[in-house]
Each structure stands twice: as C-alpha cells, then as structure tokens.
Amino acid sequence: MLGMEGTMEPCRYLVLGPMLVRTPEGQLEAPGGPVTRAVLAALLIAANHAVSQDLLIEETWGDGAPHDPEHSLHSQVTRLRRLLGPEAITRSGRSYTLTVADDSIDAMRFENLAGQASDAEDADTTRALCLEGLELWRGAPFGDLADRDFLRLETYRLEEIRLNVIETCFDADLELGRHQEIVASLRAAVTQYPFRETLWGQLVTALGRSGRQPEGLRVYDEYASFLRSELGIQPGVAMQRLRDGIVADRAQPTA
Predict the structure, then answer these.
(1) What is the pLDDT along the chain (255 residues), one digit of tens a residue?
(2) Sheet holding 20-22, edge to edge
(3) Which of 93, 103, 121, 190 is most buried by a 10 A CB count?
(4) How far apart are alpha carbons 202 and 193 in whole angstroms?
(5) What is the CB neighbour count within 10 angstroms for residue 81?
(6) Contact indicator for 19, 145 with CB cutoff of 8 Å
(7) CATH number of 178-255
C-alpha cells in the first residue's frame, strides 16, 4: 500500500486482542506461532528501544529455553523480518530493536485517543473520542500471550485505561442527557466489573434521571450488599450521597 508520496506505508501492529500485523501491502497477518509472537510482543512493548538478547530469550522461553537459544532467537527474528520487512528489526551487538512509526501500534493509538478524550472541552467530542478508542479493542491484549509474566503488567495497564475510558464515555452520555439509553449498557458493565464503584454510581444516576428512583435504590442496596460480602466495607461517600439524593427527592411532596 503506497502513501501519498508513493512510499510504502509502515506495518501496523494490532495487540488489543489476538496479535495481528497489517503489512505494508495492507494484508492482515498472524505473526507466526506462540514463540514468534512472544518475540514480537517483547519487542513491541519496548518499541524503538533496544532489547537485550538475553532478555528476549528469557521472556520468550523462560526456563524452557532451547539448547542453542541465541540461534533460535535469531531464527525467530528472521521469520519476523520476512513479514515486517528486512529493516524493521535491527541488531546492535547483543540487542535487537523494533522500529515502529508513530501511532502504528493500536495500543499507542488508543492511549492517544484516551488522552484527547480526557482533555476535550465538550461532551460530544469526549464521547466520540472514547468510542473511537474502544472500537480498537478486539479482545484481551496480546491474545493468548496475555498471561505471560512479562506481559501481565502491560496487559493490566491497558485494561485499566480501557475501564477509565468506558467510565469517561458514560459520564459524557449522562452529560448529554442519554441516561435512558445507557441503563442496559451500565447494567452489563457493573455485572462484568462489579468492583468499579464509578460504574455503579453511573447506573444509579442514570436510573434516577430516568424516573426509576426505586430501581436506583435497589441497585445501591445490591452494590452495598456485594461490598459487605466481598470486602466487608460500605460504599464510598459519593455513592452514599447519590442514594441520599434519591431518597430526598422521593420524600418531597408532589405538586
């Protein structure tokens, strides 16, 4: 695939789900088997920085390294070069570097969109940026490699950013008056992430604004019961104020 000036576009790396590479020709390719993907993942999380040969071997094979790990690593790098291009991975001494273009990793693009969403000055823009970022996700980061020790922290970090973006998107929905439309999505979210108090608060808020105050109080009680059984604690002050606000509204006489 050619760019505006006739130059070949760089590879694009998809790690927000099963690992894939979009080649310069525009084809989506799975980058080999688990070992090859592990080498690529280790290079990607240090993109544009040198990674020592010893660290790559440790992160790829752990205690199960082959008899000649240096040769095996070189073989994996050779396979990746066939897919990514001969200049994509360079070697200097006993280190390898994967050179990537700005925003060519979907996780990098997602983080950029998350930052733009948090800095946006209006709810419409915030919501649009959040949705654009969330659409990049296809599953667990790095797919079947997510439980590798060297990827666990990065996987957790990306998942945490994703949850913050989800909450930011719901905040924008509430600001835009879309409370009725998001109740079902919020219910699904608290079921999937029951320890996220912000999501529970957004669900209570959406129900209250939709004229479903009794249901909002039941949701609060549900969350309070969950916390007592799981952690032995009470909801936070912000949640308690949401409940008190609904109770006060219901106590006011109707005209």
Answers:
(1) 334 444 557 899 999 999 999 988 888 999 989 999 999 999 999 999 999 999 999 999 988 888 899 999 999 999 999 999 989 999 999 999 999 987 899 999 999 999 999 999 999 999 999 999 999 999 999 999 999 999 999 999 999 999 999 999 999 999 999 999 999 999 999 999 999 999 999 999 999 999 999 999 999 999 999 999 999 999 999 999 999 999 887 766 655
(2) 12-14, 20-22, 28-29
(3) 190
(4) 13
(5) 14
(6) yes
(7) 1.25.40.10
Helix, strand or coil, per DSSP, at residue 86: coil
DSSP annotation of 167: H
What does the pLDDT look like over 225-247, one tens digit per residue?
Answer: 999 999 999 999 999 999 999 98
The residues that bridge with 8 in the sheet, in sequence order, are 2
Q: How far is CA 148 from CA 99, 126, 138, in A?
A: 23, 34, 19
177-201 burial, b at 16+ Cβ within 10 Å, e below that, comes to ebbeebbebbeebbeeeeebebbbb
Domain 12-98 in this protein, CATH class = mainly alpha
Q: Which long-range contacts link 223-228 to residues 24+ away (Cβ below 8 Å)?
A: 223/190, 223/197, 226/194
Cα separation, 227 vs 51, whole angstroms: 43
Report d(CA 13, CA 31) in Å as an integer: 10
Residues of the chain with CATH 1.25.40.10: 178-255
- Report the length, in residues, of the chain: 255
3-state secondary structure of 54: helix
Q: Where does the chain hold its CATH 1.10.10.10 domain(s)?
A: 12-98
Tokens 């990793």 -> residue: 105
